[in-house]
């Protein structure tokens, strides 16, 4: 400690103490976290070393910078961090005393916190304890800190199973003992933004059980209506019960009104416009390489460079700010939605009328095509009946004439040869006449066939033209159908949003008043409310067992699972108040030493482990051990 002069104690906890110090040579303020490693087990020591290694790797303008670490003579590990003179966000909110932050300020903090989390998640790191107490301010900028329980994931598909975090910011999956990934940080981020807007926790209760019930139901008072719809909608999406329904950090950064703030912030940083920024002795302020990498990933770097080179105002870039698309005032928002719904209805009616008109045209063309086909078919049938081959007719006439001559020869004698010759001549002339007539008929028939072929060609071209028109009409019909379906979906969504807006407008004051009444009633009936919350908590836990079949539920022993839930609940309380490492150490000591150690010795040792302020957790640890032993005597499944 020769290099650093201790100024004051900032805080203390299970891990050790935090001091504000002054560097003797640099004459700058720093923060030192002193961790006692001498009495640590191997596992705790490895966790501490992991934290130091993690801090050494983090280099971002919106993350509290690591300066140094060393071991002092008393075997304390000293981690030296940059001092943030603005304090933490929790104190900033408390100092507002009911006066709401301007929306521009909240959006600036939102963009900077999102960049810090994007940097962590890109390195496969979960913060797992994001809260207002761990968000610090320096020169008006956000610094994310306290990575004591952060976890590095080995792959993007990995999940952290240990339940760590502050109860007010814990996501529903943690209370359900389910694995979680980056979306748990998004939930905590949403809770922080809610607290900035409403100056109170999103989820609050008098007991951990009651808090768990509210979180798992997603029950929180409405966000202050003075803020834009875009901001309120984003917070609502971040507080979705199902993790997959929450946006990722990159999706948050790509929201137009957030991206606009990111652009402005980066322009100020890279151009040196930010107050007291880029000082040579500020370590965290010169970590701009990671910020530049993010600018490239968000496709902003080229635009930022053009802005800086041209010397244009930062506001010159026109982002599509979604937060301004809906009026911030509730009355204006209602009128806007009503007008939009009416416009959608008119457009839908117009498209439906056009669709009906196209359908009529298609039907008319198909009827015309059918009638022409029918007419053509009838003509072909008539022609096929009337058409007799010329050679066949000629042959038939010749055969008839020959038969007549033979008959006449038998009836008449040879004296009538002269008359017979006359008859033969007449029949020959008649034959020649018939043949000539048939030839003339054949010529006429050939002419009629040529005419039919020409008519068929004309009809064929007409059919092709009709088919082309029908295909065009059907294509238009499909386009109209798709457009009508899209308009119906849009109208349905806008209708729903309009009714929600109207209902919220009518009931908002009542909801807030009811929430406040419930909150104050809970303070007066703490014990009774705790019992009711425990019952609700158990019920909701049973509902969340999705992988258990109905037949298996019937055979389960409810007493067994009730005790098991109580054990898990007590463990959550201990981990939330003490941290995972201290709880495990106290649990191991009580479990293996309570039989052969006196009460006074037990208390003395637990004071060393838990600190005097946390000695009350001894009772909870003892209850956990007792219930675990009791659980061994109860059958899990009923016969």
Topology (SSEs and partners):
Blueprint: E1 4-12, E2 16-23, E3 29-36, H1 42-57, E4 66-71, E5 76-82, H2 89-96, H3 103-122, E6 125-126, E7 135-138, E8 141-144, E9 151-152, H4 172-175, H5 183-198, H6 208-217, H7 229-238, H8 249-253, H9 256-271, H10 289-297, H11 301-310, H12 330-386, H13 390-411, H14 417-524, H15 526-543, H16 550-555, H17 558-578, H18 580-593, H19 599-610, H20 617-632
Antiparallel strand pairs: 1-2, 2-3, 3-5, 4-5, 6-9, 7-8
Helix pairs in contact: 3-5, 3-9, 5-7, 6-15, 9-11, 12-14, 13-14, 17-18, 17-20, 18-19, 18-20
Catalytic activity: L-seryl-[protein] + ATP = O-phospho-L-seryl-[protein] + ADP + H(+); L-threonyl-[protein] + ATP = O-phospho-L-threonyl-[protein] + ADP + H(+)
Keywords: ATP-binding, Isomerase, Kinase, Nucleotide-binding, Serine/threonine-protein kinase, Transferase
Domain Protein kinase: 4-258
